[in-house]
Amino acid sequence: MYSGMYNGSKKHEPDIDKVLSRAWNVGLEKIFITAGNLSDVRNSLKLANTNDRLYTTVGVHPTRCSEFDTEFPTPSEYIQNLKQEFDSNIDKIVALGEFGLDYERTKFCDVETQKKYFRLQLEQLGPYTNLPLFLHCRAAATDLHEILSQNLSSFPRGGVVHSFDGSEEEMKNFVQLGLHIGLNGCSLKTEENCKVVKEIPVERILFETDAPWCGIRPSHFSSSFVKTKFPAVKKNYDENMMYKTRNEPHTILNILEIVAHIKGDMDPADLASKVYENTLKLFS
Questions:
Q1: Least C-beta-crowded within 10 Å: which of 171, 177, 191, 198?
Q2: What is the DSSP letter of 133?
Q3: Closest CA to 255 of 200, 186, 192, 167
Q4: Per-residue pLDDT tens for 246-264?
Q5: Tens digit of each residue's pLDDT (9 = 90 or more) over 53-108
Q6: 71: burial class by Cβ within 10 Å (0-12, 13-18, 19+)?
Q7: Using an 8 Å Cβ cutoff, are 109 and 99 in contact?
Q8: Which of 270, 263, 207 minimizes the C-alpha distance to 31?
Q9: Helix 38-48 vs helix 75-88: angle between axes, to the nearest 10 degrees?
């Protein structure tokens, strides 16, 4: 989308420079680009290497983990290629992932294959990279928690369950494993989501946007808590505005505003400082 492509149709010229400029202007200091397979890792590294404030991840998303059976003669060779990218870019790769389990989109990869290659990455890449985990979880919290519990030695630095939209019990179970909870627009859709967010210990909260996905929509329960409105257009693309429903990193400010409200009108500056501290402790 930041190259101007939407569902195979070109709508505008690449505008990543404008997107990043808007991010830096609201106070973002670091961004990591989420990779979901080997090709993503290589492409995101090209972008990350253009700016000292950009970083990336190494891992295979659950909906794409069938690549372990198709891209190379053996899964071990795929793992070896991921290790090589990590070895060559240690200063730019800050997390292992995005990986985990997704039981809402099994048409891309069945449950058993997802679990098999989630375990493989934990066992083979966890100790090798010693990176914190960037975890994906969709309707799979029980199995994700079980597999993580069986592999605690693979992630001594902890990690984050990103884009969290689970129950309070699921949140507490992940926190007990030493994990953080990543919040974006998908975490704040319903009143029940917001009740769960209220119970997350502040020292375990991380903010994210998952841009270009997971923006705050008018239909979200939390949308009324947004204080800062960013200019956007649905038609007639303008490089100085947000476009269509494409999310951008600078909307992380809205996540801050919403969570500060949910936490009992907590001072946004204090909350931002604490969450930034959480982020640096985990990924630095």
A1: 191
A2: E
A3: 186
A4: 999 999 999 999 999 999 9
A5: 999 999 999 999 999 999 999 999 999 999 999 999 999 999 999 999 999 999 99
A6: middle
A7: no
A8: 207
A9: 10
